[in-house]
């Protein structure tokens, strides 16, 4: 079954580099994600000024995934608590 949605191309700037993101997400969402990544990279660079761009990108990814996993765990614990209360 083919996906009828059209891919969109969104050009964003992250840490002074331009990237074209192609996908099904809303361009506004892509720009919001790009702003978040840019802010995180600048935040980390401020506290670690000697990091090269590659290490900065990896640390930014690790931080973002860490935040995501914490949120997932929190949501999972919340659902488990709600299920226990319903029993």
Short description:
Homodimer. Interacts with FtsZ. The chain has 87 residues and is α+β, with helices and mostly antiparallel strands.
Radius of gyration: 18 Å
Number of domains: 1
Unreliable parts: none
Major beta sheet, strand line-up: 1-2
Name the shape in a single word: flat
Q: Report the count of strand segments.
A: 2
Quaternary state of the chains: single chain
Would you tell me the structural class of the helices and strands? alpha+beta
Q: Which percent range describes the beta-strand content?
A: 15-25%
Largest sheet: 2 strands, antiparallel
Subcellular location: Cytoplasm
Pfam family, one: ZapA
Subunit structure: Homodimer. Interacts with FtsZ.
Main location: cytoplasm
Notable traits:
single chain; 87 residues; alpha+beta; two-stranded antiparallel ribbon; 2 helices; 16% strand
Task: Describe the protein's architecture and organization.
The protein is an alpha+beta fold and 87 residues long. The protein has one domain (8-86). It has two helices and two strands. It has helices spanning 27-47, 53-86, and strands at 8-14, 17-23. It has a two-stranded antiparallel sheet. Helix 1 packs across helix 2. The longest helix has 34 residues, at 53-86. The chain is flat. The model has no long low-confidence stretch (mean pLDDT 93).
Give the SSE layout.
Blueprint: E1 8-14, E2 17-23, H1 27-47, H2 53-86
Antiparallel strand pairs: 1-2
């Amino acid at each position: 079954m083919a996906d009828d949605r059209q891919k969109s191309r969104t050009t964003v700037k992250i840490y002074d580099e331009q990237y074209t993101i192609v996908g099904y997400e809303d361009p506004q969402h892509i720009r919001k994600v790009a702003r978040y990544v840019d802010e995180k990279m600048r935040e980390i660079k401020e506290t670690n000024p000697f990091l090269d761009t590659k290490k900065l990108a990896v640390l930014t990814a690790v931080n973002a995934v860490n935040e995501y996993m914490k949120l997932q765990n929190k949501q999972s614990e919340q659902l488990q608590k709600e299920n226990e209360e319903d029993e």
